[in-house]
Amino acid sequence: MEFTVVALDLTDSTQSEVQRRAMAGAPEGTVVTAGHQRAGRGQRGHDWWDAPGQSLLCSVLLRPDCPPATAPQLSLVGGLAVAEALAASAGVSLRIRWPNDLLVDGRKVCGILAEAASSGGRVHHVILGIGVNLHQSAFPDSLADRATSLRLLTGRAPEVPALLAVILDRLGERYAAWQRGGFAAVRAAWLAHSMLPGQAVRLPDGGLGRAEDVGPDGALLARAGDGRLVRIVSGAAVEEGTVHAARH
């Protein structure tokens, strides 16, 4: 898979920029990066905070031939690829908090957002957003106790072009494996990087449960307080027109 990178100094959101390009017919492998976002988006409608020039901010356009129900798996595939890339390029050992937050010692270094559009019962495109904290030496009070950066962890941070190249290389490999064999093809590697079992998770009914495993289809299996085993799909809303998965 070939990637074509468009580097912007400033944009509203790399997700929005790639969405516009996707609807205009941009090919799979289109990547947009930004030095700063005015309106970065995160998981469950949260904003994504970034200071100018401090983070790797990018979105990748994928056009998998798959039904909408499998699109959320790509947020897991993306999380695995980035975890492997950061381990290789920065020497940090990250754990994946389901579905796709990357943590070191309980603090978030990276988040993933996968957004998909579908029509006619097939996925039209998936936009995989990646945000990695690189050069930050401090965070706003609201994030200070739960976020960190590669500079804080290692005393240095790779530059965006070098790190992006490694991330795209790993993403290309993991995406190809997923296309051949579904999430089952990368499940073992994902579990090896994950915080499971035992991660506290929010159940569909609003209660709390404990994660036990991830199935070959990418669904989380969690134990409710009353002993029930509950199946949870990343980005539970899978609808004709728009499918959402996750990020920061």
How far apart the termini lie comes to: 26 Å
Strand runs, count: 12
Beta percentage is: 25-35%
Q: Biggest sheet: strands, sense, closure?
A: 8 strands, mixed
What CATH calls the topology is BirA Bifunctional Protein, domain 2
CATH level 1 class label: Alpha Beta
What is the SS-derived class? alpha+beta
- Label the CATH architecture: 2-Layer Sandwich
Shape designation: globular
What does this structure look like?
25% of the residues lie in helices and 31% in strands. With 248 residues, it is of the alpha+beta class. The strands form two sheets. Strands 1, 2, 3, 4, 5, 6, 7 and 12 form an eight-stranded mixed β-sheet that branches. Strands 8-9-10-11 form a four-stranded antiparallel β-sheet, with no helix packed on it. Strand 9 (208-214) and strand 10 (220-224) form a beta hairpin. The two termini are 26 Å apart. Mean pLDDT is 89; it is low at 236-248.
Quick rundown:
This protein is 25% helix and 31% strand. It is an alpha+beta fold. Strands 1, 2, 3, 4, 5, 6, 7 and 12 form an eight-stranded mixed sheet that branches. Strands 8-9-10-11 form a four-stranded antiparallel sheet, with no helix packed on it.
